Amino acid sequence: MVIIPTYNEAENIKPIVARVRESVPDAHILVADDNSPDGTGKVADELAAEDDHVKVLHRKGKEGLGAAYLAGFRWGIEHGYGVLVEMDADGSHQPEELPRLLTALKGADLVIGSRWVPGGRIVNWPKSREFISRGGSTYSRLLLDVPIRDMTAGYRAFRKETLEGIGMDEVASQGYCFQIDLAWRAIKAGFHVIEVPVTFIERERGESKMSRDIVTEAAWRVMSWGVGSRVNKVLGRKDAKES
């Protein structure tokens, strides 16, 4: 199941769903809409009425990317899906690359579509945005002592067992931090995480949800996790995320 969280993506949701359906015809799609005022939920309902591979999860309001994905994961697991995929609605994640992630998942527990491994790239980003993304991944990798190059990547394929094993009920982070949180949890739980190269293309329609608050939250939480982990190791205690 490909989970696509939406908030004011009425212009984007129809073409992205069509591309997913063409790229992986057997995949089902869950549009998790946060009660978008622009009518995204209605467009999604129309798509679902025409195609039994499309489902819609209507949420009460805008609660953030992390909360939308967690709700989507739970819905998918409850309905028997064994593989769950994160994908943006704005076209930045290329559905045509989804088969690469799914093929890699045959030998892994979590596959991350990475911009910062050989073969990965970005299109139409200003240097300032690239600096934030690269810097955020490097900062997280060093503080948390993990080998992942693109910690903030949002194009991912999970096995159901991975999501069940990382303590989803304890996750409260959002945005960039949500992606870092889940990747770190997976590694600390002993799951096999790999990266495959993808091309990330900046959205052409609609507005980015990125904000200073999202970046600040990520920096603060990662610092807290990293310091806490090192203190626990010195004291011989298990990390909170392992308990």
Main features:
two-stranded parallel sheet, globular, 243 residues, 43% helix, 7-stranded mixed beta sheet, alpha/beta
Structure description:
- The protein has eight helices and nine strands.
- With 243 residues, the chain is α/β, with parallel strands linked by helices.
- The strands form two sheets. The protein has a seven-stranded mixed β-sheet with strand order 3-2-1-4-7-5-8, sandwiched between helices. Strands 6-9 form a two-stranded parallel sheet.
- Helix 7 packs parallel to helix 8.
- The longest helix has 24 residues.
- It is globular.
- InterPro entries: DPM1-like, Glyco_trans_2-like, Nucleotide-diphossugar_trans.
Terminal-residue CA separation: 29 Å
Strand tally? 9
Rounded average pLDDT: 89
**Quick one: biggest sheet?**
7 strands, mixed
What's the total helix number?
A: 8
What is the overall shape?
globular
**Radius of gyration, rounded?**
17 Å
Indicate the structural class.
alpha/beta
Q: Regarding quaternary structure, how should these chains be classified?
A: single chain
Instruction: Enumerate the strands of the largest sheet in spatial order, edge to edge or round the barrel.
Output: 3-2-1-4-7-5-8
Unreliable spans are none
Query: How much β-strand is present in the residues?
Result: 15-25%
Q: Kindly state the percentage of residues in helix.
A: 40-55%
Q: Helices and strands, in N-to-C order?
A: EHEHEHEHEEHEHHEEH
Domain Glycosyltransferase 2-like: 2-165
InterPro entries: DPM1-like, Glyco_trans_2-like, Nucleotide-diphossugar_trans
Keywords: Glycosyltransferase, Transferase
Protein name: Polyprenol monophosphomannose synthase
